[in-house]
UniProtKB/TrEMBL annotation:
<keyword id="KW-0472">Membrane</keyword>
<dbReference type="InterPro" id="IPR051103">
    <property type="entry name" value="Plant_metabolite_P450s"/>
</dbReference>
<keyword id="KW-0479">Metal-binding</keyword>
<keyword id="KW-0560">Oxidoreductase</keyword>
<dbReference type="Pfam" id="PF00067">
    <property type="entry name" value="p450"/>
</dbReference>
<feature type="transmembrane region" description="Helical">
    <location>
        <begin position="6"/>
        <end position="24"/>
    </location>
</feature>
<keyword id="KW-1133">Transmembrane helix</keyword>
<keyword id="KW-0408">Iron</keyword>
<keyword id="KW-0349">Heme</keyword>
<dbReference type="GO" id="GO:0016020">
    <property type="term" value="C:membrane"/>
</dbReference>
<keyword id="KW-0812">Transmembrane</keyword>
<dbReference type="GO" id="GO:0005506">
    <property type="term" value="F:iron ion binding"/>
</dbReference>
<dbReference type="GO" id="GO:0020037">
    <property type="term" value="F:heme binding"/>
</dbReference>
<protein>
    <submittedName>
        <fullName>Cytochrome P450 superfamily</fullName>
    </submittedName>
</protein>
<dbReference type="GO" id="GO:0016709">
    <property type="term" value="F:oxidoreductase activity, acting on paired donors, with incorporation or reduction of molecular oxygen, NAD(P)H as one donor, and incorporation of one atom of oxygen"/>
</dbReference>
<dbReference type="InterPro" id="IPR001128">
    <property type="entry name" value="Cyt_P450"/>
</dbReference>
<comment type="similarity">
    <text>Belongs to the cytochrome P450 family.</text>
</comment>
Length: 234
C-alpha cells in the first residue's frame, strides 16, 4: 500500500472521528474558561508559542486572560489548573475529601506507573493510603529523617568533590545543576537500596531515568492518536 493511501486513510479517519464527536459526544459539563480548543486535538496547541520549560509563566499569562481557574485540554481530556494559592488551599485543604481522588491515567502513563500503582498516580483508596502511610512513617517521620543524616553528609561530600574536581580541571564550574542532580541520585539510591553504589551504577540509573522522562514526550501522541504508534515507534 502506498504511503499516500495510508496518509489519506488516516486523515479520513480523523475527520470522521471529529465529525462523530461534534454530533454525538459534545460535552455538557461546565468547565472553567481556557484557550480555544479543537475537537480531538484539544487546546494545548495554542501553547506552542510559549516555552514549556517556563510553564509557570504560561499559566500566569493564561490566568491574566481567563481568571485564576483554567481548563486546558490535551486531546479530549480536560485538566483544571488553579493558579491562586487561596483557592488552591480552599480546594485541597478545606475541601480535601471532595478533590482527593484522581482520574484514570492516560494509556502511556498507565504503563510507566504500573497501572497507577505508585503514590503520585494511584487513585484514592486502600493502596494510596498504604503508600502514604509508608512514606510518612518510613521516610518523612522526624526520627527517620535524622537517621538518614549520614547519607546526606556522604552525598554532600560527593557534591563538594565534584565541584572541586571540575574547578581544578577547568578553572570554573560549568554545570552545577548536573552535579547537584548526580549527588541526589547517590543519596536517593542509598536511601532506597541501603547501599553506596559505584559511580558507574549511578550513571546507569540516571540514564534509565532520563530515558523514561523523554518517553513521556515521545509517546504522548499515542494518548491522542493510538493509530499513530507505527510512525512513533518505528
Amino acid at each position: 500500500m502506498e504511503i499516500t493511501t495510508i496518509i489519506f486513510l488516516i486523515i479520513s479517519s480523523l475527520t470522521f472521528a471529529i465529525f462523530l464527536k461534534l454530533i454525538f459526544f459534545s460535552s455538557t459539563h461546565k468547565l472553567p474558561p481556557g484557550p480555544p480548543r479543537f475537537p480531538v486535538i484539544g487546546n494545548i496547541i495554542w501553547l506552542k508559542k510559549n516555552s514549556f520549560s517556563d510553564f509557570q509563566g504560561v499559566l500566569r499569562d493564561l490566568a491574566s486572560r481567563h481568571g485564576p481557574i483554567i481548563t486546558l485540554h490535551v486531546g479530549s481530556k480536560p485538566s483544571i489548573w488553579v493558579t491562586d494559592r487561596s483557592l488552591a488551599h480552599q480546594a485541597l485543604v478545606q475541601n480535601g475529601a471532595v478533590f482527593s481522588d484522581r482520574s484514570l491515567a492516560l494509556p502511556t502513563t498507565k504503563v510507566i506507573t504500573s497501572n497507577q500503582h505508585d503514590i503520585h498516580s494511584s487513585v484514592y483508596g486502600s493502596l494510596w493510603r498504604t503508600l502514604r502511610r509508608n512514606l510518612t512513617s518510613e521516610i518523612l517521620q522526624p526520627s527517620r529523617v535524622k537517621a538518614h543524616a549520614p547519607s546526606r553528609k556522604w552525598s554532600l561530600e560527593i557534591l563538594v568533590d565534584l565541584f572541586e574536581t571540575e574547578q581544578r580541571e577547568k578553572g570554573h564550574v560549568s554545570d552545577a545543576l548536573d552535579h547537584l542532580r548526580h549527588a541526589m541520585f547517590y543519596l536517593l539510591a542509598l536511601m532506597c537500596f541501603g547501599e553506596k553504589l559505584r559511580r558507574e551504577e549511578i550513571r546507569e540509573i540516571e540514564e534509565a531515568q532520563y530515558q523514561m522522562l523523554i518517553s513521556y514526550t515521545k509517546f504522548s501522541v499515542l494518548n491522542i492518536f493510538p493509530s499513530c504508534c507505527i510512525f512513533t515507534l518505528f
